[in-house]
Amino acid sequence: MLCRGVDKPVAELYRRFNEETEDGRQMGAVSALLDDAINSIIEVKEEGDIDSLFRGGGTSGLVSAVSGLEDFELICFVVVK
Given its phi and psi angles, is residue 10 left (phi above 0), alpha (psi -120 to 50 degrees) or beta? Predict the structure, then answer.
């Protein structure tokens, strides 16, 4: 929803991001946030898998395993401040 109607990067914002990250060379803080997001996804999936053991219709726990960052591919990102 934040990007609705915006079809081009906002120069002021990406310049500030590039300055803060030294043009992407210092992405430690951003990478930590991405890692937190992925860990949250994994937690929710694991909770759903456990819950599925107690529902009729089979379990999702045996279908696919998501274990960490290597199971994801970053194709784009939006910085929200």
Answer: beta
